[in-house]
Amino acid sequence: MMELSLFFxxxxxxFCSVWLIEITNIFLLKxxxxxxxxxx
Length: 40
Hints:
Layout: H1 2-39
């Protein structure tokens, strides 16, 4: 039982971290685009 919950937790943690990285990348890209637009 403990192993199963641990496995589930690691899955959720991996999913959340990947999701966070994706959102951060999108946010940074948008910021970069805004900066480039201001420069032009």
